[in-house]
Specification:
The protein has 534 residues and is α/β, with parallel strands linked by helices. It has a six-stranded mixed sheet, covered by helices on one side. Strands 6-1-9-10 form a four-stranded mixed sheet. β7 and β8 form a beta hairpin. The chain is globular and about 85 Å long.
Length: 534
């Protein structure tokens, strides 16, 4: 009987949801590029992208269920569009793809990347109409809503204004100027709320308050990003100058962070429908744990330390920051997105944590989105318990790249340089079978060289099993890596990296095509084989 009532409750909830419809047209469409979008579902701006392929004529329709107000972000050819909606909105967006291409060809490269995208977007956007048109036109003429995240390690043009300020007073003047400029524009918005609706005034105030809250959250995250850049510079100076004292990092900056955190918790509404709010809380959570550290952070972690990072994000968060249930769930989802996308954090503890979240939120559409990734994690853990004889571990230590290659004298070799933390490397493994016939014929050997951290022995071996990497495997230490990059040349340290070695141990191609570039790599391998037969 309890299952009946649970099903009934779910059906009643779904029946109360409205449907958001976003229609549009890509003029001069190339028939290839997809549209990515983040909708608001269950009152939470999703941490994951969904995608849709426009029709041949460029038209597209996006539909999803929603309750209340929400925000959806669209990305087309790296241009970012933000759209505000309620639970029954219909919105229209039209973009000219030719103008995007023309704009990128003409851009002055001295202008910052986001500013370039903003200028191109203004020229390429043909129409934004439908419900809440004035809000969505406001959104998409603001540089602010072009940012996909405010947490970039290198900062942005706005956060660098904070970083370059000499005093806290200058920081406050910069932030106040930016915020007030947008407040004034929000105040003048003519919202198309039904004038016969008795709640029209209330709805207008709610929407404008939502927009103001976003502005506060966004520039709060910008402030924290600027503070991170400033602190990183000071910590680097401490590291470089042994005579420097900790007070090189002015206590006034710390006090600014503390005062901002207190104000953000009490004055910025916890609105999970806004990407700006979610970015702010993620930034604040990180900053409050690091802003008084005056050492260069350790770059590697053991498996246990990685597991602890994951558990802290999913469950042991600061409840003074995430003090509503929805904010806490949004924070957990942001972690889940990161931990399930690659194989860095794969462990039994992650799977247990996923199961715990599923039990806590059994009806969540947001969690159901991750079902294929959860199945992938389950298969990974199962594979780690099995043997895989086709992955041959080279246990002998080699000092140089040439010494390792000499082991394969008389054989052509395809070298794949990778790491378990490299998501593009993992993605390329999907295409490895395209060369398998050549491997089975004895024409070429696969040599996988891992540049993984020394602490990640188990993760390295488990990745080999799960991805069924047939061939030889070698883990490079620091001295070997330095020598290998010197031998291969090109951009050092960039992975995935592929190279072709001939039967004499000479480098045939220091940078070969990727397995996903099927025809090109096959042709390169055939050229190598043909050379050896001449």
């Amino acid at each position: 009987m309890k299952y009946f009532f649970a099903l009934l409750a779910t059906l009643l909830y779904l029946s109360a949801l409205g449907q958001v419809t976003i229609k549009g047209k890509i003029n001069n469409y190339d028939r290839e590029t997809v549209i990515y979008y983040h909708p608001t579902i269950e009152g939470i701006y999703t941490p994951y992208w969904k995608e849709i392929q426009p029709k041949a004529n460029g038209s597209f329709t996006i539909k999803f269920e929603n309750e209340g107000y929400g925000t959806t972000t669209l990305s087309f050819q790296r241009l970012i569009y933000r759209l505000f909606h309620d639970d029954n909105s219909e919105i229209y967006l039209e973009i000219d793809q030719n103008k995007i291409l023309e704009g990128r060809e003409k851009q002055n490269k001295s202008i910052g990347r986001y500013e370039r995208g903003h200028a191109i977007k203004q020229r390429a956007t043909t129409e934004i109409s439908g419900d809440y048109a004035s809000v969505n036109q406001f959104y998409n003429r603001q540089l602010r809503t072009n940012y996909s995240t405010t947490r970039s390690v290198s900062g942005s043009s706005l956060s660098k204004l904070i970083y370059q300020a000499d005093t806290p007073e200058q920081v406050n003047v910069i932030l106040d100027s930016l915020i007030q400029q947008e407040y004034q524009q929000i105040d003048t918005l003519l919202l198309t709320v039904d004038v016969e609706d008795s709640q029209a005034d209330r709805k207008s105030k709610e929407i404008k308050n939502f927009l103001r809250n976003e502005v506060e959250a966004f520039y709060g995250a910008i402030f924290l990003s600027g503070m991170s850049l400033k602190r990183r510079e000071h910590v680097t100076k401490l590291h470089q100058d042994s005579s420097a004292t900790v007070d090189i990092y002015n206590r006034e900056w710390e006090q600014m962070i503390e005062a901002f955190a207190d104000r953000a918790i009490h004055e910025i509404k916890p609105d999970t429908r806004s990407p700006d709010y979610i970015d702010l809380m993620e930034s604040l959570s990180y900053i409050l744990g690091t802003y008084q550290e005056y050492h260069i952070p350790k770059q590697t972690q053991t498996s246990d330390e990685i597991d602890q990072i994951m558990v802290n994000q999913l469950f042991n968060y600061d409840t003074t920051l995430f003090y509503t249930e929805k904010a806490a769930f949004a924070h957990s989802l942001a972690g889940l997105q990161m931990y399930l996308m690659g194989q860095i954090f794969y462990s039994p503890l992650l799977l247990q944590s996923v199961y715990h979240l599923q039990e806590k939120y059994p009806d969540s559409q947001l969690l159901r989105h991750y079902d294929p990734l959860v199945e992938k994690l389950e298969n990974y853990l199962k594979a780690s318990q099995e043997t895989f004889s086709s992955g041959k571990i080279i246990r002998r230590k080699y000092d140089t790249f040439d010494e390792l290659i000499s082991r394969f004298e008389g054989k052509n070799v395809l070298v794949d340089i990778w790491a378990t933390w490299c998501y593009p490397c993992i993605q390329e493994f999907k295409h490895k079978d395209k060369l398998q016939l050549l491997v089975e014929s004895g024409e070429i050997e696969f040599l996988y060289i891992s540049v993984d951290k020394p602490e990640w022995e188990d993760r390295w071996r488990n990745n080999i099993k799960y991805n069924q990497l047939k061939g030889y495997h070698y883990r490079a230490d620091q001295d070997f890596k330095v020598n290998m990059w010197d031998e291969l040349g090109g951009y050092k340290g960039a992975i995935p990296r592929y190279a072709l070695i001939d039967k004499n141990g000479e480098i045939f191609l220091s940078t070969a095509a990727r397995p996903s570039e099927e025809n090109e790599l096959v042709n390169q391998v055939n050229d190598l084989i043909q050379q050896g037969q001449e």
